[in-house]
Specification:
The structure is a single chain. With about 230 residues, the protein is an alpha/beta fold. The chain is built from six helices and ten strands; from the N terminus they run βαβββαββααββααββ. It has helices spanning about 20-30, 85-95, 120-140, 150-155, 175-190, 195-205, and strands spanning about 10-15, 35-40, 50-55, 70-75, 95-110, 115, 160-165, 170, 215, 220-225. The strands form two sheets. The chain has a seven-stranded mixed β-sheet with strand order 3-2-1-4-5-10-7. Helix 3 crosses helix 5 and helix 5 (about 175-190) runs antiparallel to helix 6. The radius of gyration is 19 Å and the shape is elongated. The two termini are about 20 Å apart.
């Protein structure tokens, strides 16, 4: 957010607002005379205010809010699940962006899980399998919200200035990253059809084992700027 130079009184669109942490930060930046339009298919965790306009919309079915040139900046953080037509959603966002405004796209790439250390080979195989299942459940078969080649989509929309950052971390059993993975598996358990309850329980135990060392999913953030 700090890179975007968001100022008071500006209008910002957030796609994939989720639980609203970034929404709240954006609202602080634009001030009481600005506005943040927070869009998500599930808005149950979002609360509207005089600054925050919450709109329940599914990018796979619904048009994004706003007319052409409506927003100073647009932030699109990894809407959970795959997009049927990422190019169409990007085209909609670019059309709604004012000249000189920033578009931020964030997602998780299709990079395979990396298991650096496990108690034994069987445990390592189980961790890899479950992480693959979780990745597929969260991002769809294509493995990335904005496709593996977002640069071409942006260039086709006339956006020539962009910067892409990718990051991974090492997670140790018992640490916050592994605990988060265990929580995600527990939450997604009904949709993880290729693993058994015993596998899921064993995975949860392994995420507390300090002998486990793995690589996080690769996160990607794309900053792109509309021409003045």
């Amino acid at each position: 957010m700090d890179r975007l130079d968001i100022r008071t009184n500006q209008q910002v669109l957030e796609v994939g607002a989720g639980t609203g942490e970034i929404t709240a930060r954006l609202a602080q930046l634009v001030g009481r005379n600005g506005s943040v339009t927070a869009v998500d298919a599930d808005t149950s965790q979002l609360a509207g205010t005089a600054v925050i306009d919450v709109q329940q919309r599914d990018p796979n079915r619904d048009l994004l809010p706003g007319q052409s040139g409506r927003y100073d900046h647009i932030v699109a953080r990894w809407p959970h699940g795959t997009l049927r037509d990422p190019a169409d959603v990007i085209e909609q966002m670019v059309a709604r962006l004012r000249p000189g405004g920033w578009l931020v796209l964030a997602d998780i790439t299709p990079t395979p899980p990396r298991i650096y250390r496990a108690p034994d080979d069987e445990s390592g195989t189980l961790i890899y399998t479950v992480m693959q299942q979780v990745h597929r459940a969260l991002t769809g078969l294509d493995g990335a919200t904005w496709t593996a080649n977002p640069e071409t989509l942006l260039l086709n929309q006339g956006i020539v200035q962009h910067c892409i950052h990718s990051a991974t971390e090492t997670w140790t059993g018992g640490g916050p990253g592994c605990r988060l993975l265990a929580d995600i598996v527990s939450h997604l358990r009904p949709s993880l059809t290729d693993i058994t309850h015993e596998d899921a329980n064993r995975f949860g135990d392994l995420m507390t084992d300090t002998r486990v060392l793995l690589g996080s999913y690769e996160r990607r953030v794309i900053h792109a700027r509309e021409r003045n």
